[in-house]
Amino acid sequence: MEIKKVSPSQPALKWALIGLVTSIVVTYAFQFLNVDPNSPVKYLNLLPFIAFLFLTQKEYKDLLGGYMTFGEGFLSGFLYAVFVGVLSAIFTYVYYAILSPEMIDKTLAASQSKMVEQGLSQEQIDKAMEISHKYFAVIGTVVALFGSAIMGVIIALIGAAIFKKERSPLDVPDTEYQAPDEPAV
Predict the structure, then answer these.
(1) Left if phi > 0, otherwise alpha if psi is -120 to 50, otherwise beta: which for 34?
(2) How many whole angstroms separate alpha carbon 62 and alpha carbon 87?
(3) What is the pLDDT at residue 176?
(4) Across the strands, what pairs with 177?
(5) Under 8 Å CB-to-CB from 57, ≥6 apart: which residues?
């Protein structure tokens, strides 16, 4: 009898790719609709991230026969967040450095007006703008990578608590399943 091993990477990568495509569409929709880069509307992009993380955990639970430990649920959600982070970081860099470098100027102009409102001196504003313009794509890439991972940890913990359903010791599994961290029989 062969034990079937299910990997959390498969649903995580699938939903991360779907999430990346959704993020690209939303990014360009915001650009074409001329949405202010500092507008709270930009946080709408978090909704697909959260939904796809939960869908990753749900699909992994289904692949495990309807049972999933808290750790398995967290791992699948965290892998999704890491995959999205890496893919989003690559897209962010390409977007700002190659595809739409004019968005850097638009975003920095909005930031500059906020600095003026806060009462910073022109010298401080000029220095901040010089550094920001020079490293904007790199900073955006790093923020996308780590922001996704940090937010993913929090949401994966919530999702794991929601989707957790452990087998009772008296349950007889319908399928032969072995957890990823257990040695093969």
Answers:
(1) left
(2) 25
(3) 56
(4) 4
(5) 68, 73, 76, 77, 156, 159, 160, 162, 163
Tell me how crowded residue 71 is: count the other CB atoms within 10 A of its CB.
13
Is pLDDT above 70 for 36?
Answer: yes
In whole angstroms, give the CA distance from residue 109 to residue 101.
13
Contact 148, 127 (CB under 8 A): no
Per-residue model confidence as pLDDT tens digits over 156-170: 999 999 999 887 777
> From CA 125, how far away is CA 105, in angstroms rounded?
14
Q: Kindly give the residue spans of alpha helices, DSSP state H, lying in 33-165.
A: 46-63, 70-94, 102-118, 122-163
47 alpha carbon, distance to own chain's centre: 10
Give the C-alpha separation, 43 to 46, whole Å.
Answer: 6
Measure the CA–CA gap between 142 and 146, rounded to whole angstroms: 6
d(CA 16, CA 92): 15
What mean pLDDT is predicted for residues 98-107?
80
What is the SS3 assignment for 42? helix
The pTM of the full predicted model, rounded to 2 decimals, is 0.79
- Res. 91: pLDDT tops 80: yes
